[in-house]
Design a protein that fits this description.
Number of strands: 0
Structural class: mainly alpha
Largest sheet: none
Subcellular location: Cytoplasm, Cytoskeleton
Function: Kinesin is a microtubule-associated force-producing protein that play a role in organelle transport.
Distance between the termini: 59 Å
Order of helices and strands: HHHHHHHHHHHHHHHHHH
CATH class of one domain: Mainly Alpha
Helix content: over 70%
Radius of gyration: 26 Å
Keywords: Cytoplasm, Cytoskeleton, Microtubule, Motor protein, Repeat, TPR repeat
Oligomer: single chain
Strand content: under 5%
Pfam families: TPR_10, TPR_12
Number of helices: 18
Main location: cytoplasm
CATH architecture of one domain: Alpha Horseshoe
């Protein structure tokens, strides 16, 4: 943050000098406003970034002819800020204007067009319009294939972007294919224990887990962890994430003792790395509780679920869905212990929170209502 403040001060001083030396709306003003916008963007002050980018664009519109290629830059920057602000229709509008300017000014396979298609794809992804996102990402990739040599390191990110969309569409085999291509390229470009390889193995494992290919998922998660142990200091929080992922696969495989061991390693690292009431600790206690629940050790599960709830009460707002999850978990343990009145009480608390935090058609809310209704009818 300190460096951003220095950069901002320098750019603003430059702008003041320009204001003294140049007439208003001189073309040279566009660059300082753009630079100031970039710093605000990196600082996360998106409204100020937007204001500076828009001022840069205004100056260029006065100084340059219609649809000049220099307009594309500010429109792109404005679009990406709107994306970060969650105003996706405005983001899309600006990015499409930027793309049209580039199409007029540049040859059809210029790398800047690839960047423009990629940015549009990102916005469609955030909007949940996955087919359009894939289409834009693939157009970007086509251009890069013409402009760059085969196996250029940049391709890894493009294949990864496409994979993320396919993953969200539930097209896991296509996602896996893109992730494996991304990994192949990274292996050529990066040292064998580079952290980016750990991330790729993790992504592959996640998709394999969803496909029910647990052995392959486990192998990839373990390779990711091996790299992290070499690349990162002992007990780095990323180790905890890897142990958690490995435990999750073991749980899906029904190997609960192995799952328990990995979850407990994850928890011990988080205890060292995080403050005592961090939400991730609550998740970790919940995960361990779930394994004991599957093992039929309900007293241990209950104790862990209650610890998870204690942390969430401190760390989260009163109607956060995470609290409903804890209440539901406790209720289900009491149900299996045969303490039906306690089960009903906790499930009703879960339902009360969900009614305040999610839509009436949310699957979690619908499921809790069904369980409560069954409990009331049965007992």
């Amino acid at each position: 943050m300190g460096e951003y403040s220095k950069a901002l001060s320098s750019y603003e001083r430059s702008l003041e000098i320009f204001k003294i030396a140049l007439p208003p709306n001189h073309p040279d003003f566009a660059q300082p406003y753009n630079n100031i916008g970039m710093v605000y963007d990196k600082m996360g002050e998106y409204s100020k970034a937007l204001s500076s980018y828009e001022r840069s664009l205004e100056i260029q519109k006065i100084a340059l002819p219609s649809n000049h290629p220099n307009w594309a830059g500010p429109y792109n920057n404005i679009g990406m800020v709107y994306d970060k602000m969650g105003e996706y229709s405005k983001a899309l509008s600006s990015l499409e204007i930027s793309l049209e300017n580039l199409k007029i000014a540049l040859p059809p396979n210029h790398p800047l067009l690839a960047t423009s298609y990629n940015n549009i794809g990102l916005v469609y992804y955030h909007m949940g319009e996955y087919s359009k996102a894939v289409s834009s990402y693939e157009r970007s990739l086509e251009i890069r294939k013409i402009a760059l040599p085969p196996n250029h390191p940049d391709f890894a990110q493009f294949y990864n972007n496409i994979a993320v969309v396919y993953d969200n569409m539930g097209k896991y085999s296509k996602a896996l294919s893109s992730l494996e291509r991304s990994l192949e390229i990274q292996k050529m470009a990066l040292p064998s224990n580079h952290p980016d390889l750990a991330a790729s193995y993790n992504n592959i494992a996640s998709v394999c887990d969803k496909m029910g290919e647990y052995s392959k998922a486990l192998s990839s998660y373990e390779r990711s962890l091996e790299i992290q142990k070499i690349a990162l200091p002992p007990n780095h929080p990323n180790w905890a994430s890897s142990y958690n992922n490995i435990a999750s696969v073991y749980s899906h495989m029904g190997e609960y003792s192995k799952a328990l061991s990995s979850y407990e390693k994850s928890l011990e690292i988080l205890k060292i790395a995080l403050p005592p009431n961090h939400p991730l600790l609550a998740t970790s206690y919940n995960n361990i509780g779930l394994v004991y629940y599957h093992m039929g050790e309900y007293s241990k599960a209950l104790s862990l679920y209650e610890r998870s709830l204690e942390i969430r009460k401190i760390a989260l707002p009163p109607n956060h869905p995470g609290l409903a999850t804890s209440c539901n978990s406790i209720g289900m343990v009491y149900y299996h212990m045969g303490e039906y009145s306690k089960a009903l009480s906790w499930l009703e608390r879960s339902l009360e929170i969900l009614r305040k935090s999610v839509s009436s058609t949310h699957p979690d809310l619908v499921l809790v209502k069904i369980i409560i209704e069954n409990l009331r009818n049965r007992f």
